[in-house]
Design a protein that fits this description.
- Formation of pseudouridine at positions 38, 39 and 40 in the anticodon stem and loop of transfer RNAs.
- It holds the Pfam family PseudoU_synth_1.
- Keywords: Isomerase, tRNA processing.
- Homodimer.
- InterPro entries: PsdUridine_synth_cat_dom_sf, PsdUridine_synth_TruA, PsdUridine_synth_TruA_a/b_dom, PsdUridine_synth_TruA_C, TruA/RsuA/RluB/E/F_N.
- By secondary structure, this protein is α+β, with helices and mostly antiparallel strands.
- The chain has two domains: 103 residues, Alpha-Beta Plaits, CATH 3.30.70.580; 138 residues, Alpha-Beta Plaits (2-Layer Sandwich), CATH 3.30.70.660.
- Helices cover 22% and strands 30% of the residues.
- The protein is built from five helices and ten strands; from the N terminus they run βαββαβββαβββααβ.
- Strands 1, 2, 3, 4, 5, 6, 7, 8, 9 and 10 form a ten-stranded mixed β-sheet that branches.
- α1 packs across α2 and α3 crosses α4.
- The two termini are 28 Å apart.
Length: 257
């Protein structure tokens, strides 16, 4: 059976998350239902990461096995036709080796987070950003984030429901940029690691927001990390500003430079 890699983009608002749910809509369920329209029967796809309810993706990667030798472009077009009107799109497709795996072959995940700083309600970006009604000190936030780079026990910054065998992870980068747009200023966070714990990104951003508004010092982030105690974490920020931006592999299955 030929195996195909799918690059998936979606708006997470209408979904209970990536993972298939018995009685709630999921992104995985939407893609599997579209596959069943092309080749009748049950389909199970695997993804690079399981995003939570309300979390979006710009470059989620999944793989599926099909009976027919589809041309990748034709498969992408057919899936997009059957995914309508769900806010899910297959933006690229490639045939891969039979032992290639969207999750286990991945070497890197990249997350993107948008934080809008304005008092007026967001309109065009509603459901796509986390909004706070005050300006934030991004230099202080960068100083706090610097304590999190490298190999650490991230117990403080993971959900109590996290199923990872170990809280020890290597966080390769946290970049924070201020962007001025027509709707006002926003901070954009980019985090990169081989893998992340459940709620790790939202826990980190929520804690850094406390630094940005002066409730914490940058050193408070280091102390929270060293505590290895979930109670030391700042508030977990809401999901709507978070995007799975991309997944890295030893060789890009989609042939990008």
């Amino acid at each position: 059976m030929p195996r195909f890699a799918l690059k998936v983009e979606y708006h997470g608002g209408p979904f209970a998350g990536w993972q298939r749910q018995r009685d709630q809509p999921s992104v995985q369920g939407a893609v599997e239902a579209a596959l069943a329209r092309l080749e009748p029967g049950a389909h199970t796809i695997a993804a690079a990461g399981r995003t939570d309810a309300g979390v979006h993706a710009l470059g989620q990667v999944a793989h599926c096995d099909l009976a027919k030798p589809w041309a990748p472009f034709r498969l992408m077009e057919a899936l997009n036709y059957h995914l309508k009107p769900a806010p899910v799109a297959i933006v690229d497709c490639a045939q891969v080796a039979g032992d290639w795996h969207a999750r286990f072959s991945a070497q890197e995940r990249r997350y993107f987070f948008r934080l809008a700083m304005r008092r007026a309600p967001v309109t065009h970006d509603k459901g796509l950003v986390w909004q706070v009604p005050h300006d934030l000190d991004e230099d202080a936030m960068r100083a706090g984030a610097a304590h999190l780079i490298g190999l650490h026990d991230f117990t403080t910054f993971r959900s109590a429901m996290c199923q990872s065998a170990s809280p020890v992870k290597t966080l390769d980068a946290i970049d924070i940029d201020r962007v001025e747009g027509p709707g006002g200023a926003e901070l954009q966070f980019r985090l990169r690691a081989r893998s992340f714990l459940h709620n790790q990104v939202r826990s980190i951003v929520g804690s850094l927001e406390r630094v940005g508004r002066g409730a914490w010092t940058p050193e408070h982030v280091r102390a929270a990390l060293k505590a290895a105690d979930r109670a030391a974490c700042g508030p977990v920020c809401p999901p709507q500003g978070l995007y799975l931006e991309g997944v890295g592999y030893p060789e890009d299955p989609f042939g990008a430079d």
